[in-house]
């Protein structure tokens, strides 16, 4: 689901090209096709915007007859349209059809998807069963999946197209309504409901489905702005060499240092060696940030925790945690921010309140001891 706003246009361009390149590396039967769904224009200018979109990308653009909306039936319009794409005529046997797609889903444009992992997941599901795949939203009934991405098998798409239930319950919170359709249609007793932790929000949000990206993550949601979108795709796919080169350019490094120097004064004196290596297999931005802020962070941390056992990967984890929360950082509370990052290391998901509580206990223990804590003591206080 997308719109014609400036941010949406940028994200859409990135998604189109990224997924095109990734799909090219997959065999045809494992590829995942994307259609960008717009509501109809609400103004004179938007008429031209959606017309240009449809004209430029006719094969992956669908514009509903309803005005642009979130909860007034846009999702239903998409699944009705998707049913027409499910089937094609058999090339030789008259009256028979071929199934083009085993699954159809709905996702948001601020979602980054690791296509090979998603394809592997879908291929592992029994084809003789009905499936509803996503991340459950809350615990309310009827159960439904969060809007980051949910996918259903082809038989459910056919049912949506033919049943009066979705048409009669189109208006309302789009994702909740989808779950309501299945509940009213009696599907809950016979479908496989897959609520997956590999589908999650970015770690820095307050939503309960927040999680740190790992090598098992399939979907990362709430990649709202350009830096976050870069972060999300870098975490899922690594950073392309061209982008690494751009991030390491003198101008880009100056911009990065200008952003950091008020909170981390020593960054201005950091000169990256000409042979400085950044792995393109993981997020390059986090690696660069770790090098730039390491001295300041180490000065703060070494008064509370012995840092001799920390590896470069640990410094990257600390830097990543802090940079994802950059707008919340305060110079006078830097000790707390650094300790929160240490507390959160290697934990799939952590609550800010818990991080602060443990951070304060670490600081109190170091003060009582009169010297930096050993890493063993840190683990004892953290509880893992």
TrEMBL record:
Xref: InterPro entries: Glyco_trans_31
GO MF term (any one): hexosyltransferase activity
Domain of life: Eukaryota
The keyword Glycosyltransferase belongs to this UniProt entry's keyword annotation: yes
Any one GO cellular component localisation term in the record: Golgi membrane
Main location, first listed in the record: Golgi
Family from the record: Belongs to the glycosyltransferase 31 family.
Protein name, UniProt field: Hexosyltransferase
Annotated PANTHER family: BETA-1,3-GALACTOSYLTRANSFERASE PVG3, BETA-1,3-N-ACETYLGLUCOSAMINYLTRANSFERASE
Subcellular locations according to the entry: Golgi apparatus membrane
Protein species of origin: Rhizoclosmatium globosum
Keywords linked to the UniProt accession: Glycosyltransferase, Golgi apparatus, Membrane, Signal-anchor, Transferase, Transmembrane, Transmembrane helix
Lipid bilayer topology: Single-pass type II membrane protein
Enzyme Commission (EC) number: 2.4.1.-
């Amino acid at each position: 689901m997308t719109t014609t706003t400036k941010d949406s246009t940028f994200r859409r361009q990135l998604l189109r090209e990224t997924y095109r390149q990734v799909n090219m590396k997959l065999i045809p039967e494992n590829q995942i096709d994307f259609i960008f769904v717009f509501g109809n224009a609400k103004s004179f200018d938007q008429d031209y915007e959606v017309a240009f979109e449809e004209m430029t990308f006719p094969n992956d653009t669908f514009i509903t007859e309803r005005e642009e909306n979130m909860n007034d039936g846009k999702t239903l319009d998409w699944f009705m349209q998707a049913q027409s794409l499910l089937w094609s005529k058999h090339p030789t046997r008259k009256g028979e059809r071929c199934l083009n797609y085993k699954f159809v889903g709905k996702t948001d444009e601020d979602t980054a998807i690791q296509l090979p992992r998603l394809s592997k997941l879908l291929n592992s599901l029994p084809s003789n069963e009905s499936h509803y795949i996503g991340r459950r939203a809350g615990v309310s009934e009827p159960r439904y999946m969060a809007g980051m991405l949910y996918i259903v098998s082809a038989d459910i798409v056919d049912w949506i197209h033919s049943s009066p239930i979705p048409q009669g319950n189109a208006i309302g919170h789009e994702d909740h309504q989808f779950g309501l359709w299945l509940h009213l249609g009696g599907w809950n007793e016979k479908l496989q409901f897959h609520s997956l932790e590999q589908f999650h929000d970015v770690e820095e949000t307050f939503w309960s489905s927040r999680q740190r990206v790992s090598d098992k993550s399939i979907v990362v949601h709430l990649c709202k702005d350009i830096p976050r979108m870069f972060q999300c795709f870098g975490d899922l796919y690594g950073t392309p060499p061209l982008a690494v080169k751009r991030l390491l350019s003198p101008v880009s490094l100056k911009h990065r240092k200008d952003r950091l120097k008020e909170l981390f004064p020593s960054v201005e004196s950091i000169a990256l060696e000409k042979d400085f290596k950044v792995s393109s297999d993981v997020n390059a931005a986090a690696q660069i940030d770790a090098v730039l802020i390491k001295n300041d962070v180490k000065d703060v941390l070494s008064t509370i925790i012995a840092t001799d056992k920390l590896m470069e990967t640990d410094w990257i984890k600390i830097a990543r945690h802090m940079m994802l929360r950059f707008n919340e950082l305060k110079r006078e509370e830097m000790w707390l921010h650094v300790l929160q990052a240490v507390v959160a290391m290697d934990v799939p998901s952590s609550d800010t309140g818990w991080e602060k509580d443990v951070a304060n206990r670490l600081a109190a223990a170091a003060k009582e001891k009169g010297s930096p804590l050993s890493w063993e003591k840190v683990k004892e206080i953290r509880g893992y």
